[in-house]
Structure formats: C-alpha cells, structure tokens
Amino acid sequence: MKKTFYLLIAIAVAVMVFGSSGSVLAASSLVVAQDVAPRMMNPHGDDSDAGLQYMANFFDGLLQRKGPDGTLAPALAERWERLDQLTWKFYLRKGVKFHNGNPFTAADVKFSFERLSNPDVSEFINTGKSIAGVETLDDFTVVIKTKEPIPWFANNMHQVFIMDKESTESRDPGDVMVKPIGTGAYKLVEWVKGSYVRMEANADYWEGAAPLKTVEIRPVTEASTRFAALASGQVDIVTGVPVELFDKIVTNPKLDVVSRPARRSIFLALNNKPGSPTADMRVRKAMYMAINEDEIIEKVMRGHAAPAAQIPDPPTIGYNGNIQRLKYDPAEAKKLLKAAGYENGFEITLSGPNDRYVQDAKIAEAVAKYLAKVGIKTKLDVKPKSIFFPEVTEGKLDFYLIGWFDGTFDMGRTYFKLAHTRDQESGHGVFNGAAFSDPDIDKLLQSTADIVNPQERGKVLQQLNKMAMVDKIAWIPLHYQEDLYAIQKGKGINFKPRPDRWMVYKEISK
Amino acid sequence: MSKRRIKSRMLHSFLHDPSAIVGFVILVLFIAAALLAPLITPQNPYDLETLTLEHFLTPPIWMEAGQAPYLLGTDDQGRGIFSTIIYGCRTSLFVGFSVVLIAGTFGVIMGLLAGYYGGWIDAVTMRLADTLFSFSTTLLAFLFLGISGGGSILIVILAICIAGWVRYARTMRGSVLEVKENAYIMAAKSTGAGDFRLLVHHLLPNAIPPIFVVLAIDLAVVIMLEATLSFLGVGVPLTEPSLGMMISIGKNYIYAGMWWMIVFPGAALILLVIGINLFADWLREELNPKIQRKA
C-alpha cells in the first residue's frame, strides 16, 4: 500500500520535472495551426498543395523550390541536364540516408517514378504515364525518358517525392499510408488524425539539421477557432487568416500579420457547348463586363487581392502583360445580351467550393448578384471541396468558380489541364470541368510541346494566352489572392511565406 | 362535459395563464411578421437584382456608423439583418408547419391503423418506428440530405419528415389502444359500423387530443432542426433566407467585433422557440388528463 503511494509520488515528481524540461526545449519548437489537414502520409497519394506541403517536410524531391521566391534548386539530385527532347539526366547526391538508415540510391528514384503510375497509391497518374522509362546508369545517375517532349519536366521535380524502395515494398500498404520514411528534414513522431502532426528535426539531414527541433501542426479548419488558438497563445503561427479578422489582428499588439501576394488566381470557367447561351461570344463578354471585380476586391476580399486579367501570375512563362481586363460596364453588358437575343436573360447555375479559397462562397454570391442585375438568373450551387472537385474532373459543370496556380511556372502545363479539349486517353483537359473546347487553342497549345527554349516558349504561350483571354474569353478572370498568416510577436519567429503557400519548416527559425 | 363547456374551460385557463398568453402572442407576432414580410421589411434581402454590396457590414442604426433603413445593421453581402430575420422566420415557420403537417398526417394515419388493427400491421409499423427512433433525427436528415444532394427547401422538409412521423405514430397508437377499450366503441361496433366509420368518426376524434401536444412541441423542435442543418451548410440553399445560415455567417465575424450579425438572428430564433414552447406547455397541461391542475 505504502509502496504504491511512493511510486505515485515518484511518478508525479517525474512528470513535473520532465514537464518543465519541455518548456526549456520550447525555444526551438513551434506550434502551427494549419487551415488544411493531411489526408495521408503517402507522398504520391495526394497531389493537392494542401497535402504536398506536409510531405515536403518528410520527403525530398530530386529538386526543390527554395523559399521565399520559389527558385528551382538541387535537392536529391545535385545537377541535371536535358539530353534531348525526351531525355533527362539527373546526377544524384551521395551519402544521403533515409529516416530508417537505408542509403539513398538510384534504385529508389526508379522505384518512386514507377510507383507514380499505380492508381492504387498515386494521384500523379499523368506524370507517371508521361514517362517512357527510368534507367539507372549507376547508383547515382538516372536517365528518365518521357513519351512526349515535356518542356517543364524538371520544373515539376520538386513535387515528386522519393521514397525508400526497401521499406516501402517490405511494409504493409496500410503502414506506408500513415508512416512516412523519406530523406526529409523532419521525421514524423506522431500523427493523430484530426488532432495533430508532430515531427522532429532529422539530425542527419543532408543540408544540416533544421533550426527548429520539434514542430507540432494542428489542423484547424474553422477560421475563427484558428484565430482563438492564436489569440490565446496556444499556437505560434496560423495559416489562412480570414480577411474579416485581418483588421482585428493588425491592431492586436501581441500579434503580427504576414502577407504576400499569392500566385493563385481565382476565375470563372464556363462551357461553350453548341446551343448553350454561353457559346455566344457576346454572352461571354456580357457576363465578364457585368461583374464588378473592383467591388469584390474591396468588399468581399477586404482589399486583400489584386485584379487578374489572366490565369497565370507574372513569374509564369506565358504571362502576358498586355492583356487587360474588360471594364465593368453593366449597361454595355445588357446591350450585348440583347444583341445575342437574350434580352430577357437566361438561367444558369454557378457552382463552386465553399471551403477551398479565400471567401469562395461569398465571391460566388456576389457574382450571382451582378449577373442578376443584367438579367441573368443565377442559381448558386456551392458545396464542400470534396464534392465539388470530383464534379470538375468529371466535366459535369456549366459555370463554376475555381482557383489555379502552376507549381512548375509554365503556362503550357496549366493549359493542357484547364483549356485543352477533354480527352480521357491523354489525360488532357482533366480540370476543364465545363468541357470548354476550341480547336484553335488546342492546335496552338499542341505546337508548344516541342519548344524547349524558354524565350521561344514564352512568345508562343503569350500568344496563346491572348487568344484564350481576349479572342475566345475561355474564362472570366477575377483576382489573385493574397496569402495571410498571423504569428506571435516578440517570440523571435523568423518566417517568410513561400509563393506556393507550402509550410516548409526547415525554412523557419525561432 | 359538452364540447362547448370544454372550450370555455380552456379559454378560461388560457386567460389565467400568463406564460401561455406570452407564448401565444409571440407566436402570433412571428407568424404575422412572416406573412407580411414584403410589407414590413425595408428591403427584400434575397432579391439579387436589387441587393448590392454598397452598404455591407453596417452596424445597427443606433451606433455611430449605422444607416437607415438598416435597423439592425447589415451582413457581409449587404443584406439588412432585420429584413433577413423576418424572411428567415418565414422559412423557419414554413418548414416547421410543413413538417408538422406532413409528418403529423402520416404519423397519425400509421398510428391509427397500427393501434386499431394490431397484428402484423402494428408489428411492422412499430418496428420501423423503433428503428428510426433509435437514430437521432439530425443524423437521419443529414444522411438524406447528403444522399439527395439537398439544394432546396422542399428536400429539407422531406429530410426532416423521414424520422419526424415516428413521434406522432407512437402517440396516436397509444391513444387509440386506450380509446379502443371504451364502451362506446363497442357500441358502435355492435350497431354494425364498418372499419372506416369506426376509424374516422369514433377513434380519430377521440384519440387525437394528445397529438396536438406533440404537434406544438414538435414545431419548435423542427424549427431548431432546420436552423441546425442550415448552420451546418446542408439545409436551405445559400440564396434562401434562414436563421441558421445567418448565425453561421455571423459566427465568422464575432472576433471581428461585428456582433449584430449573430446576436439578433440568434435572439430571434430563441424567442420564437420559447414562444412556441410556452404555448405548448399550457396545451400539454390542458389536454393531458393525467396532470392534475390546481385550479
């Protein structure tokens, strides 16, 4: 009896001692409230930025994008070259070890790339299918051949993560889904789905151990809960600060807001099926001119967005600075509708997600209002992203709001996914959810596939961009988002947001 | 006791029960406001053609930045809170009464048949009822809305009805079983009255009083349920007014200090539900012979 009592006291003391030693370590630990939760720990199973940004901490790609500018830099490959239109050669880094101690070699690269085309474990099917073969010349040289020329192939190598061949094959597939074994700067300590992801710095990291020893990420999807966690001092950084709370945080002496113009543009996609009102160029133009984007930015986005006239952002190859927004002119829009034979308007359904982009549902509501004022009766169909995105990839929608940015900084890749006529076989137009189709755009786009020289590419892509935005009004562009983060002031947190919005913890210090 | 005497006794007790009067007045006011919405609101907050973002996030009129005609301020889409609440109550009461009517009618018929015929009809109906009863109504409605895709008020009504009829069916069955044993039923039977005549002319009118109590309580429950579903984003569509949706929008602005977007719709919902419950309480005491009344 007495023994148990002393034992209990001993445990209590131990807890107190270790508990307080935890706060000594706190100097190099960070707690983050993220607006998105990881779906899995399989780096190929989720191709959304929401998931990739978690994986980027546990795994490395052949290349990486360095914050805060997103420049392409070596990672597991020290250098690379394009041997011809179809062939890429990567020289791998030596002496890199996976978290389980296995050495990193060319066999792991071959294994990882071949895994991409397995639909059971990969959402990178398109990338996987575009590869003709992976050849290992020796343990540290890999040659990858693509089926067709892919000018942006290397630009994509920061999001194809390399897995350990041995442990991935020997482990149960379920285990692979929840326990990441990579070469990354952080090792997973514990993942409790819906609660937190804990990671600790990999002491043997090839770039040197990361400054933050431990990181805890709490996925909190509810914006006001995230803010409450920050305001009460429970977390150090929150991502996805809601614009309606921005003014409140700015005036809070304990908090700092970090913002950066985002690469992502928000736009409306619409079909051009023969016979539908939106097949008429005048109607497309009228809808564009009916929307008061300046008011959306001022009132819905609370000033935290910049008007867009096209899909790609300025650093992207193919961005065309000469494209201007059509001016807001509801009177002219009404005239155009009348000329097109829709004096009394028509009915259309605007779809969109309500939990993906900043103020997404609110923007859709505002758009419905503007269209109603020129006589177009707009029904709203906003829903959670888990329901909305499958509808886009199935091509079931007529008119919807969506956002986009291209991690490869190459508009050609974007257009093959968004603008090209839907084609199951080649995987083109997979995000062309309104089944927009234009032979001129398809033809010009296909002609860019063989152009390697970035300047040459830029010229043709700019021409294509102008054709899509000005001549065909393939989409109605709205704005570029602004990414907003809030951090605790006075804790010495050194945090610079990345253009792709990934949270890469080796780049943060405290 | 003649019917007229029952009526006069009920009126008497109603007039001497302040909480019943308060409840009744609240309910009548809400119903009147909902019916007259276009006449008494300064703005139709769901007419997309006239709605603008110009006066968005305006505080209530008595605050410094307040603006006429937005009595209780506006929300982030420029809808006046006062007008939206009135239109929202319209939806609440429409859904409430529709469900009570549809689920009530169906439930009463099922309960009547189960209680009167017994046997397999009773067994099947009541097992089905037990099964539905073992799930929460919210969950069942959620499930149905998820499968059907939702998107209209009618679907919301249907979703709530799916489990909503059970309470009526059980109450009616119990009541019928009790009434069935009465001598006058036997008498009617012995004079050769058919099943239909017995059911409609004798059992239904005599067994139905407890249903009115269930109905009154259920109205409040359904209104709360609609608000809950709309709050969670599966209820009425974004372009239709709803108190639940207003509260859901308002909660994003609490930390921004814009309290009027959540406080007023919340208060309206509570007031409406309290009003109905006060009235329902009185009705229950009045119609339930088991509760001894003091006076």
What ranges of chain A have pLDDT less than 50 throughout 5 or more consecutive residues?
Answer: 16-25
* Strand elements of chain B, count: 0
The major β-sheet of chain A equals: 9 strands, mixed
**Sheet bearing the most strands of chain B, described?**
none
Molecular shape of chain A: globular
Instruction: Give the overall shape of chain B.
Output: elongated
Question: Segments of chain B where pLDDT lies below 50 for 5+ residues?
Answer: none
Class based on secondary structure composition and strand pairing of chain A: alpha+beta
Brief characterization of the structure:
By secondary structure, chain A is of the alpha+beta class. Chain A is built from 16 helices and 17 strands.
Structure description:
The complex is a heterodimer of chains A (510) and B (295). Chain A has helices at residues 2-25, 49-58, 106-115, 125-129, 165-170, 173-178, 223-231, 243-250, 281-290, 293-300, 330-339, 360-373, 385-393, 411-418, 439-447, 454-471, and strands at residues 29-34, 63-66, 71-74, 77-84, 87-92, 131-138, 141-146, 186-192, 196-201, 214-219, 237-239, 255-270, 305-307, 347-353, 377-383, 399-404, 475-488. Chain A contains 16 helices and 17 strands. In chain A, strands 1, 8, 9, 10, 11, 12, 13, 16 and 17 form a nine-stranded mixed sheet that branches. Helix content of chain B is 71%, strand content 0%. Chain B has 295 residues and is an all-alpha fold. Classes of the chains: A alpha+beta (510), B mainly alpha (295).
